[in-house]
Fold this protein.
Amino acid sequence: MKTLKIKKLNKNELQMSDTITNPLTEGQLQDNGVLYVEDPRVPIGSEDANDTWRVEVPPERGVTLEQKADELKNNTELAEPLIDVMAEIQETKRSLAEIWYEQSDIDVMAPERSRKSKLGNIASSEMVDGEEQLIDPIPENKLEGVESIMQKREARKAASESRPKWEEYFPKDSSPEEQEKYEKFISAQSEIVREHVEYLRALHDKQEDIIEDTAVLDAYAKIKPEQYVVMHNAGVYGYCRREAETAAKKISNIRVNAHLHGRSLSSVEEKMIARYGEQIERSNLRANVAITNAGVQQEVERRLVVKRAEALRNGFVETEPMKKIIDVVLPRLAEGLPAAFFGEVGGAKSSLARHISREYLDSEPVTVDCGPDITMQALFGKTGMRASADGQGSETYDTPGSITRAAMEGKMVVLDEYDTLSARIRTACNGALLWRTGQTVRPFGMDQDIVVKPGFCIVITANLRSDRYDREKLDLSTIDRFEPNGAGIFEIHYPDSDIEPGSQAPEQNLQLAIAALTDDRGDVRIPPGMIEPGMTNGDPNIEGTKRLINFVNAAHMIQRLFSDPTAIVGHEHFVSDSAHLTRSRQQGKPVLEQAVLSPRGMLGILRNLTISGDSTTLSQELARWVAMQPAEMDRKIVSTVLATRGLLYGVRERDLKIPEGTLSAFTGSGSSSAS
């Protein structure tokens, strides 16, 4: 408890010395010792908290800026879950209000009115010409015949009074009477209202669990007003985007369910799809409205980086090109049709397939690492003999293989590196590519028939140029299994494949690299090894970031020189052998034959730097990678690309297994010690 000087902002003086009992004022000082808060005499959640006061407190002494920054970060990290769930509760109630008015027979809709929270204005208001305006989601056709602003306000007030107070129906305890009251109320609602009310109840339970932690409450009490607005609006943005994604998945599930049962959409399903479509539109609109300033935008981007980092740790990041592929291939897979993912090595083909199965088809896929040594029994199964149960003889039994097991369980099977299979094995697999939901089939090598369950589908992955990898080229009979027009074949390109090297930043590669170096708090941790010893006396973080960008740009250049025959145009200086350059052009092949710093390889190097501390450097990791490439011409080209970016600091040409003098034009010394 503190005694502070208080002055009301509307020129009406309050008693100059007043006792502040509201814990929200503790530790919320601006650098100048001035803080704007809600009326500190009103408890949290009161609808009367609409007076803003100026609180003057002597600034703390002996606290460094670094200490304040650490305290701020700790407070925001602890308080973020609470502020997020508060934002979700607000937005869920707003969605419920909109749905309620749409389904009711009243003439107008009344939005959730913007109220001032204890720490700032919520995201349902915006500044227009210097004045705060309510965000009004009400369609104008709902207000036809209501002309004046006052009439509209009265109409909305009347409509609002007709809407249920959702929380009043939540069970206050575990008694049968309370549960019965809730069940009676919830059963009378439409499906979409029930979903939202159940979610709102879960959010309230989550909030109660969070506030049991006194450390969270203490951190929340120290959040400054401007911090709260930023965090709250970012929470609103995240919730609205998730709500839109959930609605999109529900639309997909409705369509998929109809496909699986071989029927057209019912009228009820069509109405549900239309309703979810409206929900997507509303959610996207509210998400955009929540971005009220640059601070909110930065917080949204920080959370997106954290989300990418978490996704990368789980095995896959949805970049924009990947999202487009998912949108196209998902209905096909849900219907049980096969799909083929073609692409270069390390391009996340199999990771994409597994991600789709886990996140969109809600099942763990069966993954098969194909190869020339794999057997029919491993893929389809075998029949064996064993003693009968009565001990009087023997009986046959079937042991299903990977493809058969997936069909019996209704799961996706991923045949990774399909082009490594022998022609004989592929011929057998081509038959399985025609299996469809509900069919009765007899797998190769088994005595018993099986019924293909809903959810079964096959995804094969293969490389675009099998001759580069000494693999079998897929024949026309295999390609035909994915429909004659190629509707089931998808090319998975490296990130930023549409960007000319050096013309602009390879954003998707950079996002992956940053995600690999991001911790749970959203901080990007530049590994010590990103900076070479004795290389610079500047700020390590700044220099490390520059080196990271150079590394990503070099990786992007190598990816393009490996995958695109035309990428060398304008970059011929990377190829010192004119005969090799001419031969590549004549044959229409990329200048790199086998060496590529794929996204997987790039992330592997960053992972090594992260776990190795200062025991290795980026230049050393890259030198090891170059030396492992089998073709000397590849080693020379990629060494030149890396050296021009200053990424082979202190590395000798013999360490790269390239001829002396290869890099002299770029370093002036015959070694790659450029900085």
